[in-house]
Amino acid sequence: MSREPFRDLSAEGLEDLLARLGRRETRAVARAISIVERGGRGQAELLGRVYAATGRARVVGITGPPGAGKSTLVDRLAQECRRRGETVGILCVDPTSPFTGGALLGDRIRMQGLATDPGVFIRSMATRGAMGGLARATRDAADLLDAAGFDWVIIETVGVGQDEIDVVSSVDTVLVVAVPGLGDDIQAIKAGILEIADIFVLNKADRDGADRVAHDLEMMLSLGHHGHAGHRGFHDADPHGHHGLQEGDEDDAAEAQPARYWMPPILRTVASRGEGIAPLLAAIERHRSHLAESGELATRRRGQLKLRVATILKERVLAAARQHAGFELAIERGHALRIDPYALSAELFSGVLKAEAARSDFGGSE
Questions:
Q1: What is the DSSP letter of 264?
Q2: Same domain (yes/no): 113, 9
Q3: What is the CA radius of gyration of the chain?
Q4: CA 69 to CA 176: how far, in whole Å?
Q5: Cα→Cα distances 79→141, 156, 196, 287, Å
Q6: Are residues 105 and 2 in the same domain?
Q7: Alpha helix locations (H) across the chain?
Q8: Residue 249, CB half-sphere, CA atoms under 13 Å: how many?
Q9: How far is CA 363 from CA 55, 141, 211, 275, 313, in A?
Q10: Cβ partners under 8 Å of residue 317, min gap 6
């Protein structure tokens, strides 16, 4: 098969790639992910062909500060899934390096035992610097793993910055990993990450200070620093987000709609020894069942689709504006005549729409 970009792949080559992807062939999965990382027409066409086959995998995001043992945790979770006869696709997200290597590669060495397992696929992904590019490419890659038939898709992020928040906001279940001995512990995990957690994992729980970290997390939850309005930013049907009071709580709101709320559990693990992994996997499955039974899974995925469409529209409109013949002239004129940026943006937007309508090819913009 050609190693050239997707646009140079023949129709027969595309059909062959899709067939091999459906058989979960490692090379085909890797090539398909490379296509979506490049972006452009190939990405859109490939996702269009497989999207109807998505929505079946359990998609889990794992995030937390460096040194929390996330890679080991992912490795153990994948092993537990394989013991149950389930397949796993793993995406390791590094927002800082354009290549796989260095510290990222060192972290992945612990997953080498899974590398030869045909039921496990592991891929590292890095940002290309594009607006929203990392989250979009990662979500597209997760769709490919889903369409390929993997039972689980696990997305691991390296740090706790905005890129990571964007990435894990697109999954079904978010695990936030805390660990004792990282200084300010809970303060080391940014508020944006804490607020999107579905399950807290206290890893390296055999270390001194584990009880204090667990207590801090419990206090944070009890003080309402978690299930606030607007949680995750896309729960259109639920102004309180998907977290809050537990089922059976005496609060009137919880009694009126108990199934709509999920209080994140705090689970202890020692991933290096495989301790607490089975209960953690069970908690992930309980959360997935809660989402499905409460209708929140459909609400969440609708919101995710809304965000993805908005991101794609922003990228395409901006790209079209920059390629518009009058872009630089408008900037120069605006600078010379002190025209405000809102007026210039409106002018360019109108021009872009007219140009794209004339081309009748807006969906193919790159």
A1: P
A2: no
A3: 22
A4: 11
A5: 21, 15, 26, 20
A6: no
A7: 11-22, 26-38, 41-50, 70-83, 102-108, 112-115, 133-147, 162-168, 191-194, 210-222, 252-256, 277-294, 296-323, 327-337, 341-359
A8: 17
A9: 24, 20, 54, 49, 10
A10: 349, 352
Residues 204 and 111 in one domain: yes
**End-to-end Cα spacing for the chain:** 24
Other beta carbons less than 10 A from residue 124's beta carbon: 19
pTM for this structure? 0.80
Largest Cα–Cα distance in the chain? 69
Residue 319 lies in a domain: no
The answer as to whether 36 is a domain residue is yes
Q: Do residues 168 and 195 touch, judged by C-beta distance below 8 A? A: no
pLDDT in tens, the chain (366 residues): 334 445 556 677 889 999 999 999 999 999 999 998 887 777 888 999 999 999 999 999 998 888 889 999 999 999 999 999 999 999 988 765 544 444 345 445 557 678 789 999 999 887 554 445 567 888 999 999 999 999 999 999 876 666 667 777 789 999 999 999 875 556 656 666 777 889 999 999 999 999 998 988 888 888 765 543 334 433 333 323 333 333 333 343 333 334 468 999 999 999 999 999 999 999 999 999 999 999 999 999 999 899 889 888 888 888 888 888 788 999 999 999 999 999 999 988 888 888 877 775 544 444
**The total number of structural domains that make up the chain:** 3
CA distance 242 to 244: 7
Nearest alpha carbon to residue 43 among 123, 51, 21, 93: 51
Instruction: List Cα–Cα distances, 305 to 233, 238, 251, 312, in angstroms.
Output: 13, 16, 33, 11
Residues 6+ apart with CB under 8 A from 129: none
d(CA 31, CA 25): 10
